[in-house]
Structure of Methyltransferase type 12 domain-containing protein:
Amino acid sequence: MPGSPRTSVSAEHFDKVYRSKPDPWGTLHKPYEQEKFADTAALLPAGRFRSALEIGCGVGALTRLLAPHCDQLLATDCSAAAVEQARQHCADLPHLTFGTLRVPGELDAKSLPAHLADPLDLIVMSEVGYYLSGPDLDVTAARIAALLRPGGHVLLAHWVHDEPGTTPATEAAAEIVTGHGVHKVFRDRADLRPIEGRTSHRHGNSYRLDLFQRVT
Ligand SMILES: C[S@@+](CC[C@H](N)C(=O)[O-])C[C@H]1O[C@@H](n2cnc3c(N)ncnc32)[C@H](O)[C@@H]1O
């Protein structure tokens, strides 16, 4: 992916960030974040998911909106400090479980708790992909697809550069560093079928949402 970091950003980096500022991206109070999370959860297809995994849950802001759609939801992050906050933020939701998990290395069936049915019905990844190197992003996408049951869903949400009302000069320009490049890695996979996707603009920011289904 053009513009992705040469090596994936470390868990230690994120731990340091969360310990110096508990909600570094303002996900619990910024209107942009709240509206984006509502938009993200609204893209989920109707019905309930038996077993779901959230990758890079941060402090659990989106997690709370995913929770009503899931029988079991495991919310994970590479940062133990973030996971601890997410656990507290969702303490009233007993069907949620939390754990540290770093992608792609720990993203496999044996790292998932026994109570979580394998293969999974849903995997959600919001604002994580561009912290991964190109090769790590490729492996992450492959492992996500492998963990899903046929017909299971992947929901992605990532910030993009697009200015409202403008079109990037070239496709490559649109992909640099941003969610467009992350989502393209998933779009290019033969075992994932894009179902729905859109770019939205709010508060001077833009983000891309994409829903995929694992092909049978
Ligand atoms: C920008 S925050 C996004 C948090 C939340 N998902 C959201 O949409 O607001 C990125 C999160 O991804 C986590 N993260 C980054 N790289 C990761 C990796 N390789 N494995 C798991 N989590 C990772 C970070 O610790 C951080 O909590």
User: Anything to note?
Assistant: The first strand starts at residue 49 and ends at 55. The longest helix spans residues 134-147.
